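Form 12-C: Joint structure prediction
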Amino acid sequence: MGALATLGDMFRILRHVFRQIFTRPFTYFYPFEDRYYPERTRGRHIHIRENCTGCGQCVRACPTVAIRIDKSDRKYEKDAALYFDYTRCIFCGLCVQACRFNALFHTKVVDISEGEREDLLYGPDKITTLDREPLEWRGRRFR
Amino acid sequence: MTGTPRPDILDETVEVWFGPQHVSAHGWAAKLTLVGDYIVECDPHAGYFHRSAEKCLEFRTFRQGSLILERLCMLEAFLAEYPYVAAVEQIAGLEVPERARVMRTIMMEASRIHSLQFWWGQFAAELGLFTMLLWPWVDREFFLDAFEELTGSRHAVSYNTPGGVKYDFTEKSVRLLERAIERLEEHLPKFRDMVLRSPTFKMRTQGVGQFTAEQGIKWGLSGPNIKACGIPMDLRKDDPDPNLAYDMVDWEVPVTESMEHPGESDAYDRMVQRFKEIETSVDIIRQLLPQVPEGPIVDPKARAKANRLPEGEAYGRVEGTRGITTLWLKTTEKAQTPYRAKIRGPCFASYYALKHLVPGSRFADFIVMFGSLDPYPGWWDR
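Section 2 - Result
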């Protein structure tokens, strides 16, 4: 009886082992393959200057003073340039809620790490677009 | 004949700092005086986590203030930000829509489950049972996925706002929450048996950190630590908040009464109690999910009313995972920021209870006592 039980245990272990071999790994191969991000992900912002009126409500709503506005830098009739300091931003979403002209949104991009601290200060050229330099690592380009 | 005098045992004491570098001591340190393996004095120190949150609140508007509260205790973020929001609602006279009431309650209970799962894994790891660290944390990920789907962030949710909630339930976020609860219900009995019937766990926890209900109340403990002594002290039942939907649910306050030592609790009883808390929370969520009414999620006048508050003062209270959490808010006329906000976290009491609880026990039992009271540094360093 004991031998049968041991045999049963062995088969159970073997079954488990084979199941683990043929299933997909639980981990992600990160830089090349990313996890799923939901629609509401509070990642880095995007500023749509066509809709902006330069009212500055996002600057007022920010609890960490991460946004700076330059009203003299105009591209359209009454917009303004926004400077986001991602060393200060806590991604609380208050600026996006404060904007009533659909000019400021969160995006799904959350990997904003940079080599230099100054690169995290997103000026009007970086905050208005999602394009960015592809990252090179050991001769391979990704992102 | 005079021999050498017998040494006084207290002359041979050793002082040991438990923390702040210790892996279990994340933001706290206790000075222990040892004689041999026995602790004769315990001196808990606060302040390693201090970032002057109360002062920071005086420089934040009423919509921004809850962000600081949720950062005090990320594990119960939905619960932690609620006292501030409740106090602002009381002063501003905001009415919370029915849908927001129910959604708030559901997410607060989900947050309680998630926090207890974290604690349970961490407590097991402090005892050296590292398997129990990882398995509940895998289940916890499912709750975090639901939070992320709903609010866009895993931990710093910023969900409650004066007058309602910020994000509406979507079909997918409800489905993810249900999936997390189903997984928890499937695994909870198995894990509970694995922990509570484990001889190692019993030997480490039974009879350790035992105190009576009277002592607990004298030290100012609340929440599961008191309920484990057999006293049904629960703010959800005793003083129901009109802006939370606990009146729509049929539930009982979970209480643990030990057979061996009635009216007292040890570390084992507190573990049993916290499993019961999880079951109660699951029950509340299960009853509330089909009852979510249609309607707006935020008072339409909230934005204008919370911008400038009239003069007044209010208490916001919530039964947190670790005990009663309150916030006292005082505002001046047409104030944009609070005049003073005083946070009363539940864990200052449970941390300083160690001072009375620990002396006389062995050194290895110290972390069991600390873990079983479930203190979180953010609540005493505010």
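Section 3 - Comments
Chain A is about 25% helix and 15% strand. Chain A has two domains: 2-31, 39-130.
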